[in-house]
Amino acid sequence: MDFFHVLVVLLESTIRVSVPLVFAALAGLFTERAGVFDIGLEGKMLGAAFAAGAAAAVTQSVWVGLLAAILISVLLSLVHGYASITQRGNQIVSGVAINFIVFGATVILGEAWFRQGGRTPALAEGARFQIINFPGADAIREVPILGPIYADLLSGHFLLTYLAFAMVPISWWILYRTRFGLRLRAVGENPGAVDTAGISVIWLRYRAVICCGILCGFAGAYLSLAMTAGFVKGMTAGKGYIALAALIFAKWRPKNVMLACLLFGFLDALAIRLQGTPLPLVGQVPVQLMQALPYILTVILLAGFIGKAIPPKAGGVPYVKER
Amino acid sequence: MSTPYAKLPGWVEYGLVPLVNLAVAFIVAGLVVLLVGENPFEAAYHLINGAFGRGEYIGFTLYYATTFIFTGLAVAVAFHCGLFNIGGEGQAYVGGIGVALACLWLDQTMPWYVVFPVAIIGSAFFGALWAFLPGWLQAKRGSHIVITTIMFNFIASSLMVYLLTRVLKPLGSMAPQTRTFAEGGQLPKLDWLLSIFGLNIGTAPFNISFLLALAAAFAVWVLIWRTKFGYEMRTMGHSPSAARYAGIRESRITVIAMMISGGLAGMMALNPIMGEQFRMQLDFVQGAGFVGIAVALMGRSHPGGIIPAAVLFGVLYQGGAEIAFEMPSISRDMIVIIQGLVILFAGALENMFRPAITRLFAMWGQRAAAVVQTKGA
């Protein structure tokens, strides 16, 4: 039963670390499907986490925090949109720039406003998300197998955790079952055709970018309002890039995005768990190898050695109306 | 980009437009200073004073500039080939292995002028190696260079943590770094160069790798504008289909261009490792690979523009430290914001002010033409 216990703990932390990845990767899914590459996921998430932490600390309200996160993240998305859609600038350059600006700004503003070395003040109970326990979770915990699964895996997470996993089918439904989704996907494959049909490429792409901003806002809010009580300097720590890797690994499909995020989250949880413990046959695996594994897997996938990741055709290319 | 803009005179294209973009970046940065509740003009004063106020400060400014020349050239070389090498950070980091190995091997027996060339080759080799894989994957397997280089940055960082905590760390030491190099692993300072101008370099680590950086800049200029290979690279960067029709071997060019780019990024490691710290530490690159992007964008990917752009960022880094010292409410991270703003305005939004400037010039041109006409009549 010891192995089972370890597994449950491992899966529980997998879910916990996967949430921001799921949100951010779905965010990337929306823009990239619309043909706007976004390596600024990291920056948006960080900006949102800071806004959430700062607003919640000042107002003592978790909802104001969440709202601020979404607002800042959407604003940053619009900057990216303006640069890459309206000004037809280089989308990669714009994303890099946003990551830089946000990293610097969160430290400077955090230090100036709260004077705690770039942190926001620790949030009290009411100013952050609380764990939701399902009815009867404690009573059923002692039941073998099913008990821990119900009490620890399904119950006992934050509202945003459930929202993240609910967003997977919702995103699928939006992208594949609505008119907006059809057009959004089309604009990422062949904007010329969409334009010919009399639909505004620009407005569609802006809407996709806004969707991305909202989802990154949730990701950031989860980091500073649920996972920890407050913002810490550079707290995304490359999660935006992992989310990007997961998005590619998932070949730009919603269900795969979730699976890829869970896989990368699992590797992360496993790396922490395995720290210093030797494995049978292979001996001690360096933590660094485990940490690098998502990136290595993504590179291998991109190289076409395990399936092929084909990005949206018009991705990264600004649309110019032909005259 | 893809939309044609009216042709502007050279000095406007390469001088005024980047300057306007830079000015806007600084104005926005000034707004951030205001937001923090400080005086932006005071910050600007400390920036300039901190970068040029004393010989020592100038030494530090040029020390940082050396680093940025290497990474800026690295980005620029790939850029001419239409490749966006975002992996300078990882390539420079891995390039450090070459420097460290050369120094650890030879420092106790050889003088610096023997170790230095070996370290150059080592750093360029490891940097090129780290860029070879993404280049090869792009050329042969069609994976996107931007994504693979990002991934390689992270892989490099994990690899270096592993190497520095387990392999290169001397026995019994707790800190994740190599041992301190003996004299052979330490580059001489360029104090004589500054003393020509009557400046005292003080403790500034301005060293001989600056001259290497200048030589590299010249070599890049020759490579890109004076060789067949450079011509082929530029053709590919300009129009891949034209290059294909011309029979240029795309995959070969891609891989070689990336390796040159990575080699240049790797050579950046010489400056901090052999020139300042005399040991390899964790995170010695400190974002210089990314600064290279801003430097290359500012310098329009031309060595003649990259050197002043690198000096500008040297000013930011050295002057920024002074701002942080003099104005405690502004930390060094202000530089990161300015850097981001420069990347945004000089890179992604480079065409934002172009229509206005073009219109201005069209008006000016018309008036000049009108004056000529009235004079003629």
Brief digest:
Chain A has 13 helices and two strands; from the N terminus they run ααααβααβααααααα.
What does this structure look like?
The complex is a heterodimer of chains A (about 325) and B (about 375). By secondary structure, chain A is mainly α. Chain A contains 13 helices and 2 strands; from the N terminus they run ααααβααβααααααα. Chain A has a two-stranded antiparallel sheet. By secondary structure, chain B is mostly helical. The model of chain B has no long low-confidence stretch (mean pLDDT about 90). In chain B, about 55% of the residues are buried. The chains are: A mainly alpha (about 325), B mainly alpha (about 375). Chains A and B meet through helix 3, helix 4, helix 11 and helix 13 of A and helix 1, helix 5, helix 6, helix 13 and helix 15 of B.
What is the fold's blueprint, element by element?
The complex is a heterodimer of chains A (323) and B (377).
Chain A lengths: L1 H32 L7 H19 L2 H25 L4 H24 L16 E2 L4 H4 L5 H9 L2 E2 H19 L1 H11 L1 H6 L4 H27 L11 H11 L4 H21 L12 H16 L21
Helix pairs in contact in A: 1-6, 1-7, 1-10, 1-11, 1-12, 2-3, 2-4, 2-10, 2-11, 3-4, 3-10, 7-8, 7-12, 8-10, 11-12, 11-13, 12-13
Chain B lengths: L9 H27 L3 H13 L2 H26 L7 H19 L5 H30 L3 H23 L23 H5 L13 H18 L1 H11 L1 H6 L4 H18 L2 H8 L10 H11 L4 H24 L6 H16 L5 H23 L1
Helix pairs in contact in B: 1-15, 2-3, 2-14, 3-8, 3-11, 3-13, 3-14, 4-5, 4-6, 4-11, 4-13, 5-6, 5-11, 8-9, 8-14, 9-11, 13-14, 13-15, 14-15
